[in-house]
Specification:
The protein is mainly alpha-helical. It is 45% helix and 9% strand. It contains five helices and two strands. A two-stranded antiparallel ribbon has the order 1-2.
């Protein structure tokens, strides 16, 4: 089973394909996290969020009395993600050996960029979610 990061939009009326494989990026998480720290930019985990009800359903042991512990869903403007993608992509293009399979990671980043550009045109906000 492979882990993948995918984009969730706050609008359901999109007129484009928002799917991205995201497995290469997930497999390089440790290296990308180190690169983000080196660049002084957000870590990918900072962009991860989910619907609190879905999270509560996922976590069997959280009962109604613990629901205050479930964080609110966060949404980000596409520009925040696009800026992050450009900085990370530039770093990987200059330092391809800083992550394993850098060409696949760059392909994921390019696909995310296309989705966020389309989201920006529709005034949609976004966040990453994780597929296990």
């Amino acid at each position: 089973m492979s882990v993948a990061y995918y984009i969730v939009l706050d609008r359901s009326d999109i007129d484009f394909d928002a799917s991205v494989d995201g497995k290469a990026l997930a497999s390089a998480w440790d290296s990308l996290s180190a690169a983000a720290k080196e660049l002084g930019i957000r870590d990918i985990e900072d962009f991860v969020s989910c619907d609190p009800e879905e999270l509560a359903d996922f976590l069997d042991d959280i009962g109604p009395e613990d629901s205050a512990q479930v964080p609110a869903e966060q949404w980000f403007e596409p520009g925040e993600g696009l800026d992050w993608i450009v900085k990370l992509s530039d770093h990987l293009q200059r330092n391809p050996k800083s992550v394993a399979n850098s060409s696949d990671v760059l392909a994921d980043l390019n696909d995310y960029k296309k989705v966020l550009e389309a989201a920006s045109n529709m005034k949609a906000r976004w966040h990453f979610a994780i597929d296990f």
